[in-house]
Model the fold of this input.
Amino acid sequence: MKNICRCLVTVIFMAMPLSSFAAEDGLPERVVLNKIAAVVNGEIITLHELRQQAGAEFIRSGINPSDPASRGQVDMIMSKVLSVMVDDMLLRQEAERLQIKVSDSDVENELRKLVQRNQMSMKEFETRLAAQGGTIDMLKGHLRNNILSQRIISIQIARKSVVTEEEVKAYYEEHQTDFAAERSVDFSLIVFSPTANSDEVYENIRNGSLSFEEAAKKYSEGPSPDNGGNLGMIKWDDLAAPFKAQIVQLKNGEISPIFQTNSRNCLIKLNGSTSGRSMTLEEATPEIERILREPRLQERFTEYTEQLRSRAVIDIRL
Done:
């Protein structure tokens, strides 16, 4: 009984179906939009906010949310998007508890980098974002959450993910040819939306019924989807550890398994690479440590968010 009392989770599922986000019972649209979708530790997620976030997913999926025939798909997307929003709110609340802050300039810097990686002007980027059902303010919210996640990882999780000298040496000996100074790689990237069935897309790519480039155009939220997700030639030193961990296992033309970064499923296709001077073990050690640590961080971050949920009071009202 004491163990039951210690559990603070209270998830209440009301009878109303998710597809009830449309105007109903003759209520004005303004009243419907003010309804509460969820309460997380006393903080509210409104139906209006949920509809805004889900709108981009409906556009990407080619779904008309007002069509009764799409009710099942609408319910699934709304449920998944709400789950992501709950996790984001829990992380923000945890960041406040830990006194972790993200400034507006931090977010602006990340946005500027994202626009540059897409090789667009800000106006072109906003136009493409609008075509996908998104807004700059929504994107800034996602970027802020990503930065918060990384800072929570570095404070609460990274110190528990130790990589030993023996592991580094063994990895170097097995992948020595992959470590070169001044190396560059040409690769394409798919960053799946939270509601995309990444396993199904991956299987379709593997069996040849869908090309990587077609999948990127249809499903990717990452850079250059209209160009098949191709990022061009990038210096190895400029790559994030999750990408390096996948690329070192690939030959030209190969596709990585699905992996996660910033809680999003991703795929990489290696198009080509240039070799450079072989790195010594000492030179390669920091990079190897990052490669080995990254999957452990992602695993522990997932456990951490599950713990936040288990301690939270979450009232789902859809």
Observations:
- The chain has twelve helices and nine strands.
- The beta strands are 36-40, 43-46, 180-181, 184-191, 230-235, 259-261, 264-274, 277-278, 314-316.
- Residues 1-33 have pLDDT under 50 and may be disordered.
